[in-house]
Write a structure and sequence with these properties.
Elements lengths: L2 H6 L6 E4 L2 E4 H15 L3 H8 L3 H12 L7 E5 L5 H10 L4 E6 L2 H13 L6 E5 L12 E7 L8 H11 E12 L5 H23 L4 H11 L3 H11 L1 E9 L4 E8 L1
Parallel strand pairs: 3-4, 3-6, 4-5, 6-7
Antiparallel strand pairs: 1-2, 7-9, 8-9
Helix pairs in contact: 4-5, 8-9
The structure holds S-adenosylmethionine.
S-adenosylmethionine binds next to helix 2 and helix 5.
């Protein structure tokens, strides 16, 4: 083994957070995978229910901010059931391509009927794999996006570096992720809603309260919008800006591969 190979081996002592639980870093991916297998069948319904339909609006706004053009090749990292990919497919048209990239087969399968029903579904490809090791060549995409996915990675910065690698120079990045409301009273209300109502709704509708306890916990531990902006700039993205949605419940970041 060369010294470089030895440096790249995972550290067996490294830990990561799965919600508020500290777990071995090597175990987190398996827990996240299981989490999405548990919720896949009801994922879209739960999203609409828990956000009162707002996630559709957030996704439309986020894809618009990406500024796609007809013919663009787009990578949807952690694409899941493909909402962002379907929106992107409209923008890129017949000459474009959108790849939904996700490591969870149940989520990809749950989204296939939506792609089949869409008039733009023919431009969408599904690829199963880990976002921290994209099986895509360098500089092959005009745009890369990740929606509500980066927070689940064991090493979010590695996921962003991979997105940077597969973008063409001048290619655009979009990250849509949950954040926290800016108004104090609204944040307290949102805390009550997410720590009490979400797990209860998860139990009733999706048959799992654990999965919907992980969701608010992982949101609270995730980087603030300004921290995320700094991380993207450190990785090499330029013209990074962000917009808070619904008083900061979600935030969209966009940037350009310089
Ligand atoms: C909350 S869902 C978001 C799905 C979709 N982007 C949306 O906005 O509705 C997160 C997705 O990220 C995927 N995911 C989490 N960690 C991943 C990883 N390391 N590699 C690839 N996919 C991952 C999950 O399987 C899941 O489908």
């Amino acid at each position: 083994m060369t010294p470089t190979e030895a440096n790249n081996l995972p550290d067996p002592e490294e830990t990561a957070f799965f919600g508020y639980r500290r777990v071995r870093a090597a175990e987190k991916g398996r827990l996240v995978e299981q989490h999405f297998t548990d919720v896949a069948r009801r994922y879209d319904l739960m999203n609409t229910l828990l956000s009162f339909g707002l996630h559709h609006l957030w996704k439309r706004t986020a894809v618009k901010m990406l500024g796609l053009k007809p013919g663009d090749r787009v990578l949807d990292v952690c694409g899941g059931t493909g909402d962002l990919a379907l929106l992107a497919a409209r923008h890129v048209g017949d000459r474009g391509r959108v790849v939904i990239y996700d490591f969870n087969r149940a989520m990809l399968e749950a989204g296939r009927p939506k792609a089949a029903r869409s008039p733009f579904g023919g431009n969408i490809l599904h690829l199963q794999g880990d976002a921290e090791r994209l099986s895509c060549p360098d500089a092959g995409f005009d745009a890369a996006m990740v929606g509500f996915g980066i927070r689940n990675l064991t090493h979010p910065e590695v996921g962003f570096k991979e997105m940077h690698r597969v973008l063409k120079p001048g290619g655009r990045l979009m990250c849509l992720e949950f954040s926290q409301p800016t108004w104090g009273w609204f944040r307290r209300l949102y805390d009550l809603y997410s720590f009490y109502f979400m797990p209860l709704a998860g139990k009733i509708v999706a048959g799992t309260s654990r999965a919907y306890t992980y969701l608010p916990e992982s949101i609270r531990l995730f980087a603030r919008p300004e921290e995320l902006k700094a991380l993207l700039e450190e990785i090499g993205f330029t013209q990074v800006r962000y917009r808070r949605l619904t008083n900061g419940i979600a935030a969209v970041h966009v940037g350009v591969k310089g």
